[in-house]
Each structure stands twice: as structure tokens, then as C-alpha cells.
Specification:
The chain is mainly alpha-helical. Among the domains are: 72 residues, no CATH class; 191 residues, no CATH class. It is rod-shaped. InterPro entries: Prominin.
């Protein structure tokens, strides 16, 4: 059979919406099974009525879950005292159910901490300029590598530091300087070339064969000389340019080296400040919300558990139902008290009526005795027994159940319900007090951990102070040496300037001689060429000596400085391995194993035994690795271990001590249960039976009795007796109108109130039975599954606190392992220093000797050309009748003024 019902209810955040039109199947046992519904949770606060024929059938409404549910069988089990497990009441486990029905409830996730930015690095002056500039001297380095191919002589450096050179060391030096000694020997030879060629002018020249085209040869020589002079001009400009560039680099080197050392000091301070920030201020930022949540357990732990209880058991509905029952019980008790009062009043009227009827009965008996014999049969026919009261309220007064309802502790029930409400509403406060000691212990351990991290950061203060002191000492030692080189550089620049000007002067003389020769003033051109050659002869020796000295200084600078500073990708043979050894050797200020000491480790971590080669530092800083990992600062303070919460055993142990016990919590105490049971027993009264007893007639038919007395009085022969009977009839009618009518009114009032009481008791008893059933289910759930629910929410609360610490741990580990603490500035400082020393200083110095040698070679090539021109001009002068000496004397007297050329008699050109 099918029964029309409402549709499936829609659940919105635990609240039900009444369904509309659905179909339920009714089986033979008269239990309902929702075939397509899911049983979700018990809602015993409302009954849905279904009509079937003339009768009425009630079905407790259940929100549905994934199984069939038969309320009748469970109510039967509860009434018989058979225990029902939690899954039968509520379905699946509380953990899965809470997860399925908790979209926004529960402890919730921790707030994402916005850690403040790390302290910014200062502006480093040494890294301001561009590290890349065009290097026109690049290929000169290849020449130096050929001259001096040997790597840096580290063993000789150590011998020199010991100030104990020996014979093998001297031989080793000579072996290394073979290339420069060869260059020195070659320079000496080449320095004699020009003077030798010039001295050839002092010897007698062989008579040249007659030339068929002397003017063509002259023009050819002049053209060659002009080309060579153009190349010589390029070389002289290169000399002056490289000399000036080298001077600028050397002049700015002392200040730049000081800036590099200052920037290194600032970088170490900035890096240490960042690490200290991670250990102190970042921890404060993480613990602030953690301590706030620890102090707010009432809202973050207590209220979620309270909400879970409501979601799982509808505890709020049970308490509301109990409040309604208490209010209804109060009304019932008040109504019962009114009924009892009315019954007492009615019983008093019954007594008055009985007295009245007894008096009438005695009068009637007296009249019957006075009847004469002939009237005796008529008098005996008078029914005196009709003067009686049939109505009585003794069944009300004697009803123990009504008296029980009257005397029931309604106020005690209301107080018990209020107490249950207080237990429920005070659950968050109870949980807050229960976990207070454990939470305070966690907060105390967090403060202790803050002190430990602050103590760990003190070690970095020592790094700042010691590294600052050492770097300042290094600057005080190194910068004065550069200042002294700066003073020497002034004289080097003067010598280089003079050398360049000498070449320019020679170039001017040769250009002037060429111009004179082209203009026909051969007599002035010859002495000019001779003067230029004399200057070249005298200056070439000095220039070759200067070029060798410059080559020696620049070559050793390139080999011992620039090749060490070269990037291993550019120069893998030298690389940073030799540089690391040189730095460790020069920087070592202590005795020990020379192969294991590290100047960088001693400078930064104050532990020279830490393997920290300078080459590794530069390589990792070029790759933008972190300062913490590059400089092995974990040997000072292992930050990753210090912030690893898995090692914070005290905090973890105290967090696990945050425990909530709901198994022993009595929401509905024995007092409430006893009061409800008392109320239930009182409500079991059969009011219908009492009302049916009161439904009978109050008295016999007194009006008929009065009429009967009047009829008999008319038939009596004795007038006196007849008058007495008429008087009794009048009194009977008067009693009927007064006493009996009042009694009838009280009776109707009692019946009305009993009917009203019956209408109230039935639904109240039904609701009471449901509430008792729901209470047992709720208390069963709390006793058997409250621990798992509390444990789940407690774990979420603990996880929330741990999440703040995890965020701190992740922030610190990410910060010390990403670009925010990169040591890239170290590489930039090194690159800038290399640029300053090599590109700005040593490379121009090498360019100077290269251009000087280039000019000398040009002069060597120019010298024979000039000699040929001098010879040509001399021969041409002889043909004109003027000797070379006369031409020279005449030119000297006349200031080498040009004379008109002789007429050309034969010009083949």
C-alpha cells in the first residue's frame, strides 16, 4: 500500500525544510521505509501525521542516511532497555560524518603569516659600475702567456714569506724568468739596430750606380715613409692613450680597493643581520598568532567541539525540546492544581447538598410516620432514597497520579533543564579551563625557544665584530701599499709621457722632412732627417729599456695577478685553485698545516679548520648561491636544525598534552533523568477514566420526586400531612435550583478542565518519550564517541598551532636557500676588483709597452728609408754643385730655408 507524504527534505546547514509530496511504502508491519532516502540524523522534535482511513498513524520524522531505518524497532529496543550502538542511531563513524557535514565548522586552518621582508642590503659602491668594458689589450695577454707560460710559483711565495731563500729557489726563479731574460737580450740587440744604422752615415758610402729614374725612387721612398709615419702616429697615440689609462687606473686603485674591503665588511654585516632576523623577528611574527590561538582555545577548540556535538546529535534540539517540556509540564501542573482545587470546592458543595438532603429525608420520614392508617400505603410509596447525591470527586482527590503531578518538582525540572543548558553552553569554557595548563606550558616553551634562538644569534654578532676588525686591519695594511704605488705611478706616468712625446717629436721631424722633400727643399730635408735619426738613435736605447721594464712589470702583473683572478671558464688552467692557495697563504696569520688552513674560513666563521677555499666561494657566489651555505655558517649556528620543529620535543610534548575528555561529561545528569521520569509517571494518568466517572448524573430526578410528593399530598385524607408533603416538595425544588445547580456547574468545570488536561498530557507525554529517547542517544554518543570527536578536533587545534611553526620553519629554510640571501655581491665585488686591477691598470700598462715596441719597430723600419732619402738628397745636391756638407752648413745658417731647385733638364716622369 502507498501513502502520500511530503517530499524529501532539503538540508541546509543542519536545518530542515519541510518536504512536499513524496511516496512512502508501508509494509505489513506498519513501519515506514524510505526506499530512496538517506538517513542523516535523528530529529525527534516534530511528528508528521499521516491519515489512513478513520484512524491516525504517527511517524517520527528522521532525516535520512544511506540505509533503511525503522523507528518502531529502535523505540522498541529503547523501551526494552536493549542498547543501541552509535551507528544504528547516527549511521557511519563520527570522523567520516563530521568530514561530510562540516563545510565550514571545526577548528579551521591556521592563518597564513605574512612575514616581513628581510633587511635589505646596503648600496655597495664597488659594484656600481659596469663590470664589462671593451678590452683592446686582450690579445696582448696571449703574447705574455707565450713569454711566461708557467703558473703562479706558490712554492716561491712561501719561501719568500719565510724570508729564507736558498739556492734551489734562486735557480727556480731564473728558470721561471727565462722568457723575460730572452726578451731582455733581444731588446738589447734591437736597441743597437737604429744606432748602428745611423752610424753608417759616418762611413763612406759606396758609389751608387747611375739611376735611370732617380725621381721615381725618391717619390717611392717618400710614399713609403709617409705610410710608415702614419703607422708611427698610430703607435704614438696608443702610447699616450695607454699611459693615461694606466695612470687613471693606478690613481683610483687605492680608493677602489678600500671600497671593496668596506663593501665586503658591509656585506657580511648585512648577511648576518638577515640570519639574525630569521632567528629572532621572524620567530616573533610566527609565535604571535600561535600564542593568540593558544589563549583563544574557548573559540578555537571549545566551540568547534560544541558545534560537532550539535551536528552529530542535534543536542540543541534536545535541549530546546526539554525546555518546551519543562514549560508544558509547568502548565500541566498548574492545571492539575486548579482541578484539585475545583474538586475540593465541589466536594464541599456535595457535603452541603448531602446535609440538605438528609434534612429533607428526615422530614419526609417524620411525615410518613404521621400518616393515618388509610393513607399508609400512599405514604409508603414515597421514595425517600431518591434524596441522595450521586456525584463525587473522591476519585480526583484520591488519585495519586494527579497528586503526583501537583507535587511534581516542576521548578526542579526547570532547574535541571537549565543546568543541562549550562553544561552545554559552558562546554567551551570547560574545555578552555581543562586545557589551560597544557596551553600555558606550550606558550612558556615558545618563550624559552625564543630565548634559545636569540642566544644562537649572538654567535653571529661575534662574526660581525671579528670580521669587521680583520677587514679594517686589512684595509689599513693594503691601502697604504697602493698609496705608495700611486706615488711611483706619477713618475712612471711622467716617463711614459716623455717617451710618447719623444716619439711624437720624431714623427714631427720626419713629417717636416718629408714635406720639405716633397716641396723641392731637399737641402732642408736632409739635415732634418739627420736630426730625427740622431734623436731616434739616442732615444731608442732608452725606449727599449723602458719597454722592457714595463713589459717585465706588466707581464708579472698579468701572470701573478690577472691570471689568478681570471674566471675558470676563461682560463681553466689557472682558475681559482691557485688563487685560493695564494689567498690562504698570504692571509694566514697563524701556524699550522699549510694545506688545510683557510683564510676565508678564519675571516668569516673564525674557524680556519673549516674547508672553505676561496675558489669555491667565488664559484658558488657567481652561481648566486646563498651566503649561509656558501660560507658554511652552519658551523657557527645550524639554523636548519635550530628551527626544525621535529627537534622541539618539549613544545611537541606539551602540545600533545592538550587533551579534552568528553567520555565522562554528563550533559543530562541523574537529577534531570529522575525529574523527567517522575513527570513521565505522572503523565501516565488515565484522565479519560476520571472524566467518564464524572460524566454521570449528579443526583436522582429531584423534580420528579417533588411532583410525586405533590400528587400524593393531593390524595391524602389528612390535610396536615398533605401540607407537610407540599412543603417538602417545595424545599426539594429549591434545593435543586440552588445547591444542585452549583454542584452541576462545578462538575461541568471539572469535566472541561479534565478534558483540556487530557489534550495537553497526550502530546506532552509523547514529546517527553521522544526527548528521553533522544537524551539517551545523545548521552550514549557522548560516552562512546565523544572521545574520538574531541580527539579529532584537538588534533586539528594542535595542527593549527603547529602550522604556524611549520610556516616559520619553511620561511627560514626557504630564505637561507634562495636568492634573498644570495652572496652574488661577493662575486660582483671580486669581478669589479679584477676589472680595476687588470682592465683599468695592468692591461693599459701592457698596452703601453706593446705600443712602445710597436713604435720602435716602426722606427727601425723607418730608419733605412730615411737613410736612403738622405743618400738621395746628397747625391742630388752633388749633381747641383753643392756638397752635402755645404748643404748642411748652408741649411743651418739659413734655418734650413729651401732654395729654388735647379732647372730640370731631363725629366722622364
Amino acid at each position: 500500500m502507498k501513502l502520500d507524504c511530503w517530499k524529501r527534505p532539503k538540508i541546509e546547514k543542519g536545518r530542515e525544510v519541510k518536504p512536499e509530496g513524496a511516496v512512502l511504502n508501508l509494509n505489513s508491519d506498519e513501519t515506514f521505509q524510505g526506499e530512496s532516502w538517506e538517513l542523516k540524523e535523528v530529529v525527534p522534535s516534530e511528528d508528521f501525521a499521516f491519515s489512513r482511513g478513520s484512524g491516525e498513524m504517527r511517524l517520527i520524522h528522521w532525516q535520512l542516511r544511506s540505509q533503511r531505518f525503522e523507528p518502531a524497532s529502535r523505540e522498541k529496543k529503547l523501551s526494552e532497555g536493549i542498547p543501541i550502538d552509535r551507528d544504528e542511531w547516527f549511521g557511519s563513524s563520527p570522523e567520516s560524518e563530521a568530514a561530510a557535514r562540516r563545510p565550514g565548522s571545526g577548528v579551521g586552518t591556521a592563518v597564513t603569516i605574512n612575514f616581513g621582508p628581510l633587511p635589505k642590503n646596503r648600496h655597495y659602491l664597488s659594484t656600481s659600475g659596469s663590470p664589462f668594458t671593451l678590452n683592446p689589450y686582450y690579445h696582448i695577454k696571449e703574447v705574455l702567456h707565450i713569454i711566461h707560460p708557467s703558473p703562479f710559483p706558490l712554492d716561491l711565495l712561501r719561501e719568500a714569506l719565510k724570508e729564507d731563500p736558498n739556492g734551489p729557489a734562486v735557480l727556480r726563479i731564473i728558470e721561471l724568468e727565462v722568457g723575460f731574460l730572452s726578451i731582455l737580450f733581444l731588446s738589447i740587440l734591437l736597441s743597437m739596430v737604429i744606432p748602428g744604422m745611423v752610424l753608417s752615415l759616418c762611413t763612406k758610402q759606396p758609389e751608387p750606380p747611375p739611376s735611370c729614374a732617380p725621381d721615381c725612387k725618391r717619390k717611392t721612398l717618400v710614399f713609403i715613409l709617409q705610410v710608415l709615419l702614419a703607422l708611427l702616429l698610430l703607435g704614438s697615440v696608443g702610447m699616450l692613450w695607454s699611459n693615461e689609462e694606466c695612470s687613471r687606473g693606478m690613481t683610483s686603485s687605492p680608493a677602489f680597493v678600500g671600497e671593496v674591503i668596506n663593501d665586503s665588511k658591509d656585506f657580511l654585516e648585512d648577511s648576518v643581520n638577515k640570519l639574525q632576523y630569521l632567528l629572532t623577528e621572524a620567530f616573533d611574527q610566527a609565535t604571535a598568532p600561535a600564542i593568540k590561538d593558544l589563549n583563544d582555545a574557548e573559540n578555537l577548540l571549545g566551540q568547534p567541539i560544541q558545534i560537532e556535538l550539535v551536528l552529530e546529535t542535534r543536542l540543541d534540539a534536545a535541549l530546546d525540546s526539554l525546555s518546551a517540556i519543562a514549560a508544558g509540564a509547568k502548565e500541566v501542573c498548574a492545571q492539575v492544581a486548579g482541578i484539585l482545587r475545583s474538586s475540593v470546592e465541589a466536594e464541599q458543595l456535595v457535603g452541603v447538598a448531602k446535609n440538605k438532603f438528609d434534612d429533607l429525608r428526615s422530614q419526609l420520614d417524620s411525615v410518613k410516620k404521621r400518616c393515618k392508617m388509610r393513607d399508609r400505603p400512599l405514604c409508603d410509596s414515597i421514595p425517600s432514597r431518591l434524596l441522595e447525591i450521586k456525584f463525587s470527586t473522591r476519585m480526583i482527590a484520591n488519585s495519586s497520579q494527579l497528586e503526583y503531578l501537583k507535587q511534581a518538582g516542576v521548578d526542579s525540572l526547570a532547574a535541571a533543564v537549565t543546568e543541562a543548558h549550562a553544561v552545554f553552553t559552558g562546554l567551551p569554557s570547560k574545555i578552555e579551563k581543562e586545557t589551560k595548563s597544557a596551553r600555558q606550558a606550550v606558550a612558556s616553551e615558545l618563550l624559552n625557544k625564543k630565548s634559545e634562538l636569540a642566544t644562537s644569534s649572538v654567535a653571529f654578532d661575534q662574526i660581525k665584530s671579528r670580521s669587521k676588525m680583520k677587514l679594517l686591519d686589512l684595509r689599513a695594511t693594503v691601502v697604504p701599499h697602493f698609496e705608495s704605488l700611486k706615488q711611483l705611478e706619477y713618475w712612471r706616468w711622467m716617463v711614459g709621457l716623455v717617451a710618447g712625446l719623444v716619439v711624437v717629436y720624431v714623427w714631427v721631424l720626419l713629417v717636416g722632412a718629408t714635406c720639405c722633400g716633397c716641396c723641392g727643399a731637399e737641402r732642408s730635408s736632409t739635415p732634418t732627417l739627420i736630426v730625427a735619426l740622431v734623436v731616434v738613435s739616442l732615444g731608442s736605447v732608452s725606449l727599449w729599456f723602458l719597454s722592457f721594464i714595463t713589459l717585465y712589470i706588466g707581464g708579472h702583473g698579468e701572470n701573478h695577478v690577472c691570471r689568478l683572478l681570471r674566471d675558470p671558464e676563461v682560463n681553466p688552467e689557472g682558475g681559482h685553485s691557485a688563487l685560493s692557495s695564494v689567498v690562504d697563504t698570504l692571509g694566514a696569520a697563524y701556524d699550522g698545516d699549510e694545506e688545510s688552513r683557510s683564510y676565508v674560513a678564519d675571516l668569516v666563521v673564525q674557524n680556519h679548520s673549516v674547508p672553505l677555499p676561496f675558489e669555491n666561494v667565488l664559484r658558488e657566489c657567481k652561481a648566486s648561491n646563498t651566503t649561509y651555505n656558501t660560507f658554511h655558517l652552519s658551523t657557527v649556528t645550524d639554523i636548519e636544525k635550530a628551527v626544525n620543529i621535529n627537534h622541539w620535543t618539549n613544545i611537541c610534548n606539551h602540545l600533545q598534552g592538550v587533551h579534552v575528555n568528553l567520555a565522562q561529561m554528563q550533559i543530562f545528569g541523574p537529577k534531570l533523568n529522575s525529574r523527567l521520569e517522575e513527570l513521565r509517571q505522572g503523565l501516565l494518568i488515565n484522565v479519560s477514566h476520571i472524566r467518564s466517572q464524572l460524566a454521570g448524573p449528579t443526583t436522582s430526578d429531584l423534580d420528579a420526586l417533588a411532583n410525586h410528593l405533590n400528587d400524593i399530598a393531593k390524595e391524602l385524607s389528612d390535610v396536615t400531612t398533605s401540607a407537610f408533603l407540599d412543603s417538602i416538595a417545595v424545599k426539594t425544588r429549591k434545593a435543586l435550583e440552588t445547591v444542585v445547580q452549583d454542584l452541576e456547574n462545578h462538575k461541568e468545570n471539572l469535566v472541561y478542565h479534565l478534558t483540556a488536561l487530557e489534550l495537553k498530557i497526550s502530546p506532552l507525554l509523547h514529546k517527553l518519550n521522544q526527548s528521553i529517547t533522544h537524551m539517551k542517544a545523545v548521552q550514549f554518543y557522548v560516552n562512546n564517541h565523544g572521545m574520538s570527536l574531541a580527539h579529532q578536533n584537538t588534533n586539528m587545534y594542535i595542527a593549527r598551532i603547529k602550522n604556524y611553526l611549520d610556516q616559520y620553519h619553511n620561511f627560514v629554510t626557504n630564505s637561507i636557500n634562495n636568492g634573498s640571501t644570495s652572496c652574488r655581491p661577493v662575486w660582483e665585488m671580486f669581478s669589479s676588483l679584477r676589472e680595476q686591477l687588470c682592465r683599468q691598470t695592468l692591461d693599459p700598462l701592457n698596452g703601453f709597452w706593446f705600443m712602445t715596441i710597436y713604435c720602435l719597430i716602426m722606427l727601425i723600419i723607418i730608419t733605412p728609408v730615411c737613410l736612403k732619402l738622405i743618400n738621395y738628397y746628397n747625391n742630388n745636391s752633388e749633381e747641383s754643385g753643392i756638397s752635402a756638407s755645404d748643404s748642411f752648413i748652408t741649411g743651418e745658417m739659413l734655418g734650413w730655408s729651401a732654395r729654388p731647385p735647379p732647372p730640370q733638364t731631363n725629366n722622364d716622369w
